[in-house]
Amino acid sequence: MTATRGFGIDIGGSGIKGALVDLEKGALIGDRLRIDTPRPATPEAVAEVVAKVVRHFAWDGPVGITLPAVIKKGVAHTAANIDPKWIGTDADALFADVLDRRVEDIAMLNDADAAGMAEIRFGDPIARHGVTTLLTFGTGIGSAVFQDGKLVPNTEFGHLEVDGHDAEKKAAASVKDNEGLTYHQWAKRVNRYLTVLENLIWPDLFIVGGGVSKKSEKWVPLLENRTKVIVASLQNNAGIVGAAAAAVEGIEH
């Protein structure tokens, strides 16, 4: 029998969010819990918060967890907007230990990959055909690329060099807030970033997500790219949903 409920945790540069997930609808069950990401965001400090979130929901099944990092076989190989001590950390083993689970019951994924998987499964059916690129705009920029619904894991297109700068240092949603940019000013930067990316990989569709997708009407209509842009249907909950589904199905990259 296929599980109809799962549990996902999305670790970001500013917040750690967790919730129960209805895996038939691709929707959260009840409210999510968000706790600020600790400073510094070391593996031990983050694991402590994750344990607190899981305890809050009294969840005793498999747990899907996202990190803003390249993840291969449960090991973090990069660290974007989290402490560099994550690099080389066996995240599977760390979370299995702190959550008192078997390693097999932990599914570690890159945060944008998890969000993309949720959008492909539960979002607009148009995303399942051709080359689809999901981009999450938050503390940084996460990317997930799909060919006919199949993920190419661990793309790091948020770190493309655009006009001499790491793209996310100019076009992440956090930059808009930190520099006090208007939506028009920030949309120009996003537009420039998308232009560079679309000239590199020629996608058929961009899906834009992250916290700023809740205000999509203020900036998405300002984009002038040739590639069709749609807003993530799960908005900022996509990572949680994708992580929960991965945990139940034993998916890990």
From TrEMBL:
One of its GO terms (molecular function) is kinase activity. Keywords: Kinase, Transferase. InterPro entries: ATPase_NBD, ROK. It holds the Pfam family ROK. The keyword Kinase applies. It comes from the Bacteria. The keyword Kinase applies. CDD domains: ASKHA_NBD_ROK_PPGK. PANTHER family: POLYPHOSPHATE GLUCOKINASE (PTHR18964:SF146), ROK (REPRESSOR, ORF, KINASE) FAMILY (PTHR18964). Belongs to the ROK (NagC/XylR) family. This is Polyphosphate glucokinase. The lineage of its organism: Bacteria, Bacillati, Actinomycetota, Actinomycetes, Pseudonocardiales.
